[in-house]
Amino acid sequence: MSDGHGPSPEPPSGWASEQPPPYGAPQASPWTAPAGGQQPPSGQQPYEPGPPPQPYGQMPYPGHGYAPQPQPLRPGIIPLRPLRLGDIFDGTIKLVRSNPKAVLGLSAIAALLAAIPLAVGQAFVFGSMGSVLADPTLAQGGDPAVLDSFIGQYGGTFASYAISFVVVTLLTGVLTRILGRAVFGGKMTAGEAWQASKGRMPALFGVVGLMALVMLAPVAVIAAVVAVLVSTGLTGSSDSVGGLVALFLAVMILYIAYVLFFRTRFAFAPAAVVLEGRGPIDALRRSWRLVTGDFWRVLGILMLTALVVGMVAAVLQVPFVFGGTIIGLIGGGSTATVVVGAILVAIGGTLGAMITYPFEAGVAGLLYADRRMRAEAFDLVLQTAAIEQQRQGWVHASADELWHPSDRP
Questions:
Q1: In this structure, is the dihedral angle defined by the CA atoms of residues 377, 40, 193 and 273, taken in order, positive or negative?
Q2: d(CA 409, CA 392)
Q3: Pairwise CA distance, residues 153 & 209, whole Å
Q4: Distance separating alpha carbons of residues 272 and 287, to the nearest angstrom
Q5: Does residue 9 lie within any of the structural domains?
Q6: Are 75 and 98 in contact (CB under 8 A)?
Q7: Can you tell me the distance from the alpha carbon of 313 to that of 301, in angstroms, rounded to the nearest whole number?
Q8: Taking Cα atoms as reference points, which of 391, 403, 386, 396 lies closest to residue 43?
Q9: What is the DSSP track for 22-90?
Q10: How open is the CA angle 336-339-340, to the nearest 5 degrees?
């Protein structure tokens, strides 16, 4: 029977009963699993959404004054709509809190593997500093201990970079897969995430390798130019030295701008490889297209993220590194102080990187999702899938396939 305002709209299937219960009576929540003890099929994750959305404002409703305006659907770590900066940071923190064993555990392993070579290098430094402090002239006389210290320090740094290249690439792929499921409220163990992402690792290494070549290409050119200037004797006079210093500063500024530009343009390539199944070249092109139209916002968020995680990592890392260095130096090169100092340096490096790795990967992954929502209306795809998973009561493993675009431009 009409009340003068037309027929009431039908509620969506699976969300509510056709007739609402009387006022004050308990209402069935659409956020609960199916009744009757129904369990998800083998291999599927139970649906574990957060609390039901609460009204966050009022909006005019003709004939009825004001009606509550519901929040966007949020089954997982982010609301399924274009994201604000706070949503991205909050979603990254929720990614860690919702799956700490997989996220922090894998990050700690990767950070420790990269920190061990640095700690070993520092052990060589600490071992040689006792003799140098006792006789400072050894530092100028080519003493073998000083040479070992130099080789150990820089050799450890180089080894750390090489290991980081491998483990951080692997970690990025696994964390991106975990993030893709967490958007829907699902969870993955470290083993499940590895099984789901290991097939994409060759392409992911290809992307990281191509990005490294792009970043290092200007360095090779600059080194060649400097070698030519030195060989031709153009660095002898004071005027030429001053000019070279000014030129060096200008080149460094241009190189930093170059790195920031391409780092931003290719920021979404790892996510395109893991979540969309693209090859290295196609992923770089995909990232370039997604960043187009929102370059400065993406750059600003990435730089702010690097600043935030750098400060947090420093707070965790500096006390251990400082303490280990002091113990290693004042110990006079004894075995006990060298070992203790190296261990403290390793702990500091692990704690700092353990926070840096997942936060940077999470922000990059959620920025990728945000750009797809803004550029491709991908939020509608995510909302439709989340509603269906909510109705059935679990997150299907096939949710990972929703990240594949319907067309492959």
A1: negative
A2: 33
A3: 25
A4: 7
A5: no
A6: no
A7: 18
A8: 396
A9: PTTS----TTSPPSTT--PPTTPEEP---SPP----EEE-TTSSEEE-PPPP-SSSS-SSPPPHHHHHH
A10: 85
Q: Is residue 348 part of a domain?
A: yes
Residue 395: its H or E element: strand 394-395
pLDDT digits (tens, 9 = 90+) for 212-261: 999 999 988 888 877 777 777 655 555 666 777 788 888 889 999 999 99
Instruction: Using a pLDDT cut of 70, give the percent of the chain over it.
Output: 69
Contacts of 290 (CB under 8 A, 6+ apart): 268, 368, 371, 372, 375
Phi, psi of 67 (to 5 degrees): -125, 150
Tokens of 104: 């922090």
- Indicate the burial class of 143 (C-beta count within 10 angstroms; 0-12, 13-18, 19 or more): middle
Q: What is the number of alpha carbons within 13 Å of residue 160 lying toward its C-beta? A: 21
| Structure-token pair, residue 279 | 């090859």
The number of folded domains in the chain is: 1
Cβ pair 321, 341 in contact under 8 A: no
**353 backbone φψ class: left, alpha, beta (φ>0; ψ -120 to 50):** alpha
Integer Cα distance of 1 and 136 in angstroms: 99
In a domain? residue 246: no
Amino acid residing at 83? L
398 confidence band (pLDDT: 50, 70, 90): confident
**Global confidence as pTM:** 0.76
Given a contact cutoff of 8 angstroms between Cβ atoms, the answer to whether 193 and 102 are in contact is yes
Domain residues for the domain of 284 are: 85-212+269-403
Q: Are 341 and 372 in contact (CB under 8 A)?
A: no
Q: Which residues pair with 45 in a beta bridge?
A: 395
Return the residue matching tokens 């092109």: 285
The answer to whether position 261 is within a domain reads no
